[in-house]
């Protein structure tokens, strides 16, 4: 898995032997856990028009993986927006 520069910076910081913990670790953990939960669970419904043939194929592939076709679309969009996959236009 390829990590972003920000992710590599975080790893370097955490693995640095001079890193010191903050005095209110539990409060900070609670704060950032709540932020992460809000960020990952907050969703917005959209309307999307796709060719029926693409939806049919997508549903077939979804059945073979055990995922819903909506989750596959969501995963593809997420991967694209986070530069994990590229689209040839």
The counted number of beta strands is: 0
- Number of helical regions: 4
The main sheet comes to: none
Any idea what the radius of gyration is? 19 Å
Q: Overall 3D geometry?
A: elongated
Q: Secondary-structure element sequence? A: HHHH
Low-confidence regions: none
Q: What does the average pLDDT come to? A: 88
Helical percent range?
55-70%
Broad structural category: mainly alpha
Gap from first CA to last CA: 24 Å
> How large a portion of the residues is in β-strands, by DSSP E?
under 5%
Please explain how this structure is put together:
The structure is a single chain. The protein is mainly α and 89 residues long. It has a domain of 41 residues. The protein has four helices and no strands. The mean pLDDT is 88.
Question: Which features does this protein show?
Answer:
89 residues, mainly alpha, elongated
Short description:
62% of the residues lie in helices and 0% in strands. The chain is mainly alpha-helical.
